[in-house]
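Fold this sequence, please.
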Amino acid sequence: MISSLRGPVLDVRDGTVVIDVGGVGFAVEVTSAEAAKSHRGNEVFLHTNLVVRDDALTLFGFATRDELEVFIILLGVSGVGPRSALGVLGVLSPQQIAAAVAAEDDKPFRQVSGIGPKTAKLLTVSLSGKLTALGFSPDQSVAPTTTIPGIDKIEAALVNLGWSEREAADAIARVHGTSTNKMSEAQLLRAALAALGENRTKR
């Protein structure tokens, strides 16, 4: 088991950091935040988890032990794969995840691309009680990130127009995450419709 890696960064591409360890380049998938701060030549240290599949061996790396431990717990939730778990940690810190679970609030999870309403609700239920072992009790947690205004109404409108719950949630999270300005419900709905229309055109 490869539990950690330290070395200079050889390359950063599409969420993957290549680390030179003793002349061997290890490709490690990381969160978007970690990829953004990793630059060629800089030395990094990552806590890692090796995910073994029939067709691949994939390393996932994290700046803190807390992130790694939450990642492993997320993998135990039905329907959550390693890249979805990585996506959750790219949007929410371990403390924010613990706060959302303690409050039984699934909205923060619905802001993660690829996490639909059903999976978000399953995360809040499945993680209940499991994060306290990591020392994240409700009074230690910071508040979750600001939720998307009117998300329920916007999702319902998109579903009524023929898109699935997951497609609607993904589109809302995507356009909300790429916007630098606070959008009203109407603006967010129009932007989500435009994003869904682009996806349909590309198919």
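The longest strand covers residues 43-53. The chain has three domains: 4-62, 66-140, 151-202.
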